[in-house]
Write a structure and sequence with these properties.
With about 240 residues, the protein is an alpha/beta fold. It is built from six helices and 15 strands. The chain has a single domain, classed as Glutaconate Coenzyme A-transferase, CATH 3.40.1080. The longest helix is centred in the N-terminal third of the chain and has 12 residues. The protein starts with a helix and ends in an 11-residue tail after the last helix.
């Protein structure tokens, strides 16, 4: 069975993680939990995972709908508090966190706060939950947009919840961009789409890398890990 769009995105997220990395998850991040568990089960067994429920290196045997599920305390090697997590990030001890958003623009700004304006919001969004600070402190932040449209990859975000001018990976169900102060570049696209189709579903202008890649299919071991850790197929509800 070939990989689904959701499985390809989870595999791409897992591929961003290196063996020996320190990686953390915050609230509302089940795809990130799955990607971290898959990386640990495959190419990054020495990865250290800081889970927002207060666990260091929990045993993630099964994905749950909420990334704050207390089941993620199981098998933990140690405990940490939310202030501890922020302190580790501020001291440069966290390599990667995956960040979601309602909107992302080519400069790498993301919006998790509101549509309209902060002073007079048309719609209030879930909020930043610490991402404004964490994104700047983490060594290699990664932005994730599971359902790419022109409404969420926009020319300019309505409210800039996080700002980081560093070149930052932006992973979507269609491909891999790099966004930041120098603008956006499409680095790779998924096998089921083309650069032209990606452009049709992108609200910001972007350059196309000279060495633009077409993603290879996920490794069989990666697919096996994804399906074993997420037997309920929660990933399919979150992508595409």
């Amino acid at each position: 069975m070939s990989a689904t769009h959701a499985e390809a995105l989870v595999a791409a997220m897992a591929a961003e993680l290196r063996d020996g990395d320190v990686v953390a998850t915050g609230v509302a991040s089940p795809l990130a939990v799955l990607a971290i568990a898959v990386a640990r089960a495959t190419h990054a067994p020495r990865l250290t995972y800081l889970c927002c429920v207060g666990a260091v290196d929990p045993e993630v045997r099964r994905l749950h709908p909420s990334s704050e599920d207390l089941a993620y305390l199981g098998g933990r090697r140690a405990e940490l508090s939310i202030p501890d997590l922020f302190d580790h990030a501020r001291r440069g001890r966290i390599d990667t966190i995956f960040f979601g958003a309602a909107e992302v623009d080519a400069a790498g700004r993301s919006n998790m706060s509101a549509t309209g304006s902060i002073s007079r919001p048309a719609v209030k969004l879930p909020g930043v939950a610490g991402a404004a600070a964490l994104r700047r402190w983490v060594r290699r932040p990664v932005l994730v947009m599971p359902r790419q449209t022109r409404r969420n990859l926009v020319e300019r975000v309505q409210v800039a919840s996080t700002i980081d001018i560093r070149p930052t990976p932006l992973l979507t169900d269609l491909g891999r961009f790099e966004v930041g102060g120098a603008g956006a570049v499409l680095r790779a696209h998924r096998p089921w789409t083309t650069p032209a189709e990606v452009a049709e579903r992108t609200g910001f202008a972007f350059a196309v890398a000279d060495d633009l890649a077409t993603d290879a299919a996920p490794h069989p071991a990666t697919l096996e890990a994804i399906r074993a850790i997420d037997p309920d197929n929660l990933r399919e509800q979150l992508v595409g």
